[in-house]
Specification:
This protein is of the alpha+beta class. It has five helices and five strands. It has a domain of 74 residues.
């Protein structure tokens, strides 16, 4: 099974700059040091993700393992594309739950840590 990453780019109106987030998910990502699914979902929700799409073509088992893990962790069945290739999970319920488990300050700190951990070092893109 291969790991994959999710990217989000959003202009921050307060600073007029782009903020990017990358969160690696999946069992092989966990072996490589990425967060387990619950912590990764917390990070995704903290930076504003509202959904998660999985392309089954990226997995040797056609996503069966990751689908089982995420379905169990999120407590929901994914929406499946008509051709069966793509899965979609709604992260809004997870985000609502996150707001009951953590304070706003804790969520803000998680958001900052998530974005900072995945940002390119200063000068790397110049």
């Amino acid at each position: 099974m291969t790991a994959w990453s999710i990217y989000r780019r959003q202009a921050d109106p307060a600073t007029a700059r782009d903020e990017s987030a990358k969160v690696s998910l999946g069992p092989s990502a966990q072996r490589a040091g990425a967060a387990p699914a619950p912590q990764a979902f917390d990070a995704l929700a903290a930076v504003g993700f509202t959904g998660l799409m999985i392309d089954r073509a990226g997995y040797a088992d056609r996503g069966a393992g990751i689908e089982a893990e995420y379905t169990s962790t999120l407590g929901q069945q994914p929406q499946v594309s008509p051709d069966g290739r793509l899965l979609f999970y709604d992260l809004r319920p997870w985000a609502r739950d996150l707001r009951t488990r953590l304070t706003k300050a804790q969520i803000d700190e998680l958001r900052r840590k998530t974005l900072d951990a995945r940002a390119a070092p200063p000068g790397a893109l110049t």
